[in-house]
Structure formats: C-alpha cells, structure tokens
Specification:
Blueprint (H helix, E strand, L loop, with lengths): L9 E4 L12 H13 L4 E4 L11 H15 L4 E5 L5 H14 L3 E5 L8 H14 L4 E5 L1 H4 L5 H7 L5 E6 L4 H10 L3 E4 L5 H6 L4 E4 L6 H12 L3 H19 L5 H11 L16 H16 L8
Parallel strand pairs: 1-2, 1-8, 2-3, 3-4, 4-5, 5-6, 6-7, 7-8
Helix pairs in contact: 1-2, 2-3, 3-4, 4-6, 6-7, 9-10, 10-12, 11-12
C-alpha cells in the first residue's frame, strides 16, 4: 500500500515571529517560510504548539496564513492550527483559515475539559463537517490531558475529510495499530520518532527542529527512500543531540527554537507570556549542539 501524503512528508511546525515589541512580524514570517521551503520543507504548519497558538489572536492567525501563502505560493502546503477547547470557536477558526488560503487544518484535542471519547469524536466530526478542508488530528495527551484513543482514530478515519494524524502520543504500538487498519497519513510530531514512524509506514514529520535544520532532517527521509537505511539511521542519530537540546532540555520547544534562530540571525523575536526567554546557559547549549551537527564530517548531509 502506498503511504498517503496529503500535505507532503517534510513539514515544519513553524514558529510565529514577533517584533521586538511583541507584535506579529509578518515580514519575518514570510522570510522564514521562504527559507524553510527553499531548504527542504514541503509543508508548513502554522499556529500550532510551536507557533504559540494559545497567545495569538484569531485575527493574527488568519493574517499569518495569508502572509505565508503569499510568500510560498504553491511551493508548499499550509496547514493551519485551529484547535481550541471550544468546538464552536474551533469551527470559526477553521472557516477563517479556509478563507485565508490554508490547505488543511490541524485540530488538537480539546484541553482542560477532558471530554470522553464519544464527545471527542463528535467534536472532530463537527469541525470536519463545517469546512471543506482536510483535517490533521493532533494527538498530544501530555499537553491536552486527553488521548485520542486508537479505536477513536479508526472510527474517525471513515470521515472523508479526516485524513491525517500528528502523533505525539508516545504510543508506538497504538500508532501501528491505526496504520494497519486505516489509510490515515501519520506524521511524527516528536522529532526523535521521525525515522522510526516513517519506517513502519508513517507519512513523514511535522517537526519543530526543522525550523533550524530543515535540510538535515529531510536528508534522513531521503536516505530511507533511496534504500540506504543505514545512512538514514546514522543521519537521525547525528541529529539527536540537537533534537534533545531543543525538545527535551527542560524548556518548551518554542522557547529553545526561537532562542537558537535569534542567535543565527533568523526571524524569531521574543516569546509571549507566560513563556519566558531562554537563559544564557541554555542558549550556549543549543549553539553547541547546532555547531556539532553542522560541523560533523564537514556537514551532516555530506555523510
């Protein structure tokens, strides 16, 4: 069976650049989006966790989609994060994203209220029915408090506009169960799983780390597709210290990613409260991991 790729395979969970004063930086967003697509991303996910969706307004979310669409044109898919803990509000955001030019919608499980599985299923179906865009269901129970259970995903796969999953469940067995029984496109939402999920039939990734090293992460999947699985594993392993520094060093990925992009002279800006900027020690660790990756054997992609 051919793995479905409704939005491509190498997607970046893009940060939302802000100006020094904290305003939305649309010029920076366009510049960053153009760089990401030019260096290997065939899709961009806007206003997700890494994009600080809890602290951007509805108007900012729509403006971001419009600006990034203008910057990348048809060179990449755009998936807009619209999930909230309110079904009706999520529908409003979905319709606004569709109007702004998105190709798909990222819909996270409602958080805080922790709906049971039947209510969760109804929530996703109502959103899928409201818009003409395909949905990526975002399963990240560590943040939402609610798992989209594999059996629920299997039922939802029957909806014609529910086409994909961003998997941050840390349940590799559950993911394989859904892959076996549906045609849902599965995207790794945790960078340490990019290759592992791809190897068992996943579609690709929606990556935070790709904000910084898009070409290096794409090289992992390219090597696997070329049949060089040993090289793919080696490339994934070489990227692991940077993945750990960005994702698992005790700070949110948004904070570490923006800190590193700023040090590299790329559009980022500050994070919005309640998040706080990374301290100097964390920044130095990020730079060390990045430098090690980029200088190993000259450059990762030269291995």
């Amino acid at each position: 069976m051919t793995t479905p790729r409704p939005f491509g395979r190498t997607l970046c969970a893009m940060i939302t650049p802000f100006t020094a004063s904290g305003a939305l930086d649309l010029d920076g967003a366009q510049a960053l989006a153009d760089r990401l697509v030019s260096e290997g991303c065939d899709g961009l996910v806007l206003s997700g966790t890494t994009g600080e969706s809890p602290t951007t307004t509805d108007a900012e979310k729509a403006a971001l989609v419009t600006a990034v669409r203008d910057a990348v044109g048809g060179r990449a898919s755009i998936v807009a994060g619209v999930g909230t803990f309110d079904t009706l509000h999520t529908v409003e955001l979905a319709l606004a994203a569709e109007k702004a030019g998105a190709d798909g919608l990222l819909v996270v499980s409602p958080y805080y209220s922790r709906p049971p599985q039947d209510a969760l299923e109804a929530h996703f179906r109502q959103i899928a029915d409201a818009s003409g865009l395909p949905l990526v269901l975002y399963d990240i129970p560590g943040r939402t408090g609610t798992r989209i259970e594999p059996d629920t995903l299997i039922r939802l796969a029957g909806h014609p506009r529910i086409v994909a999953v961003k998997d941050c469940s840390y349940d590799f067995l559950g993911a394989q169960k859904v892959l076996d029984r549906t045609e849902l496109a599965y995207y790794a939402g945790c960078d340490e799983h990019n290759l592992a999920l791809y190897a068992v039939g996943g579609t690709g990734y929606i990556s935070t780390v790709a904000n910084v090293v898009p070409a290096q992460l794409r090289a992992v999947l390219d090597a696997f597709d070329a049949g060089d699985t040993a090289r793919a594993a080696r490339l994934q392993q070489r990227a692991t210290p940077l993945v750990e520094a960005i994702i698992s060093a005790g700070l949110p990925g948004t904070v570490t990613t923006k800190a590193l992009l700023t040090e590299l002279g790329l559009p980022a800006g500050p994070v919005r409260a309640p998040l706080r900027p990374a301290g100097r020690e964390a920044v130095d660790g990020l730079l060390a991991a990045y430098s090690a990756l980029m200088t190993t054997d000259g450059q990762l992609t030269a291995l």
